[in-house]
Amino acid sequence: MHRTLIVARMRPGDAPGVAQVFADSDMSDLPHIVGVTRRTLFAFHDLYFHLVEADDDIAPNLYRARSHPLYQDVNTRLAEFISPFDPGWREPKDAMAVPFYSWTPADGPVTGDVTRPNLGGVR
């Protein structure tokens, strides 16, 4: 199981609009193209958290999908509601949170260096 957490800004009243964008998208082939098996959206004050779960890392498929019309539609529609957390945002990885601790009963604690973009062992 691979998880990706995307962090951005969203006005609290825009959550229904964002949910509709993803409801429409999730009925298309886009989740299959990217490899998404589950999506959960969270709002906290003016923050937006988008948890994407997949069997494998979605980054390679996500980058390939950026030129697909379904991806471009979602991206265009979300631009009305979502703005980057970091004004220096240039690409999707700039909005992805970096895991630095994980725990499961089977594996116990797994830690990583939050200063490195790819932590390898942290799930």
UniProtKB/TrEMBL annotation:
<dbReference type="InterPro" id="IPR011008">
    <property type="entry name" value="Dimeric_a/b-barrel"/>
</dbReference>
<protein>
    <submittedName>
        <fullName>Cyclase</fullName>
    </submittedName>
</protein>
<dbReference type="InterPro" id="IPR006765">
    <property type="entry name" value="Polyketide_synth_cyclase"/>
</dbReference>
<dbReference type="GO" id="GO:0030639">
    <property type="term" value="P:polyketide biosynthetic process"/>
</dbReference>
<dbReference type="InterPro" id="IPR038474">
    <property type="entry name" value="Polyketide_synth_cyclase_sf"/>
</dbReference>
<dbReference type="Pfam" id="PF04673">
    <property type="entry name" value="Cyclase_polyket"/>
</dbReference>
